[in-house]
Structure formats: C-alpha cells, structure tokens
C-alpha cells in the first residue's frame, strides 16, 4: 500500500491510501493529523503491526472504518502513537521503562490487555522513522504530495522523493 498525504494549498491536507489492488480510501485532515498519521506508519512498520490503522486499511477497511471493532493491536498502536505525540509535544524523550509504564497505565484505564514491553531500540527506531517522515512532510510544498510505502523502512523513507506535483 502507498500512503499519500497531499498538503493543502488553501484548505485542509488529505490522506489517501492506495492499496495493492489499486483501490483507495481518503479523508481530509485536521492540521494535527499528518504527523500523527506518519507516527502511526512508523509505529506499525517498526513493530510489524498489521492489525492497526494502516494495516486495517491495507486489508480493505475505509479510513472511517478504522474506529469500529478494533483488534487489540490497533488499540495498542493508538496508545503508543498518543504517547509518542505527547512526548514530542513536551520535547523530551523518555526511556523504554518510563514509556512502558505510561503505556500500561493508559491501557489499564481503558480496560485493555497489556501489550508486550517495548525496548529502547524499538522506540529509537520508531522515533527515527517518524522524524525522517516528518522532515519529508515539512519539505512538501503546498499542493505537493508525500508518498510513503507501507510498511515503511528507514532506508526507503529517507531515500524516496518526498514530493510530486498534484
């Protein structure tokens, strides 16, 4: 699947996901969501999740259909992404031990089962990929599109051309 985020010229950006079979789903985005969605891509790619946001879309769900009847992996991914968004907003990176404690607390409050513990190397890999994708997104001019293969890899993410006219 290819994730396409088009930067709006005079309006909102859009997220389009083009599946391997050529089918697609799309949605307009609030300004917060391009980096949030790129964080999802990084989390799901590094951790090998296939039953979270982009994995569910690749399997045929529409973007709006990713909020119903979610598997545990999707709930874990959403919480991991939320904590990474919080961390990014605070401008401080925490250790895996702290991150895992926050994640366990968040999941417990939601009545969700715990997910496996994340290692510092995994968190570093997620942050590195997210930061590379975010830098590419910021370089996209208004009206341009960032194309990201899913699952993404740090090599493909940083070597791909971030924009195309459109």
Quick recap of the structure?
By secondary structure, this protein is α+β, with helices and mostly antiparallel strands. The protein has helices at residues 33-47, 53-58, 72-90, 96-109, 120-139, 154-159; strands spanning 2-6, 13-18, 24-29, 145-149.
Task: Describe the protein's architecture and organization.
The protein is an alpha+beta fold and 166 residues long. Helices cover 48% and strands 13% of the residues. It contains 6 helices and 4 strands; from the N terminus they run βββαααααβα. It has a 4-stranded antiparallel sheet with strand order 3-2-1-4. A hairpin with a 6-residue loop joins strand 1 (2-6) and strand 2. Helix 1 (33-47) packs across helix 3 and helix 3 packs across helix 4. The longest helix has 20 residues, at 120-139. The relative contact order is 0.18.
Mean pLDDT: 90
Query: Tally of extended strands?
Result: 4
Oligomer: single chain
Q: How much of the sequence is in beta strands?
A: 5-15%
- What does the largest sheet look like? 4 strands, antiparallel
Helix content: 40-55%
Radius of gyration: 15 Å
Biggest sheet strand order reads 3-2-1-4
Q: What order do the helices and strands come in, and which of them pair?
A:
Layout: E1 2-6, E2 13-18, E3 24-29, H1 33-47, H2 53-58, H3 72-90, H4 96-109, H5 120-139, E4 145-149, H6 154-159
Helix pairs in contact: 1-3, 1-5, 3-4
Feature tags:
166 residues; alpha+beta; four-stranded antiparallel beta sheet; 4 strands; 48% helix; 13% strand
């Amino acid at each position: 699947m290819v994730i396409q985020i088009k930067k709006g010229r005079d309006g909102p950006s859009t997220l389009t996901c083009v599946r391997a079979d050529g089918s697609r789903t799309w949605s307009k985005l609030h300004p917060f969501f391009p980096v949030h969605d790129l964080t999802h891509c990084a989390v799901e790619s590094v951790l090998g999740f296939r039953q979270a946001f982009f994995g569910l879309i690749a399997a045929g769900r529409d973007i709006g259909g990713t909020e119903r009847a979610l598997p545990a992996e999707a709930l874990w991914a959403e919480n991991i992404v939320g904590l990474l968004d919080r961390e990014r907003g605070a401008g401080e990176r925490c250790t895996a031990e702290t991150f895992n404690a926050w994640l366990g607390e968040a999941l417990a409050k939601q009545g969700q089962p715990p997910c496996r513990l994340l290692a510092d190397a995994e968190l570093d890999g997620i942050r590195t990929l997210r930061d590379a994708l975010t830098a590419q997104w910021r370089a996209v001019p208004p009206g341009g599109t960032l194309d990201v293969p899913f699952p993404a890899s740090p090599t493909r993410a940083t070597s791909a051309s971030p924009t195309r006219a459109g």
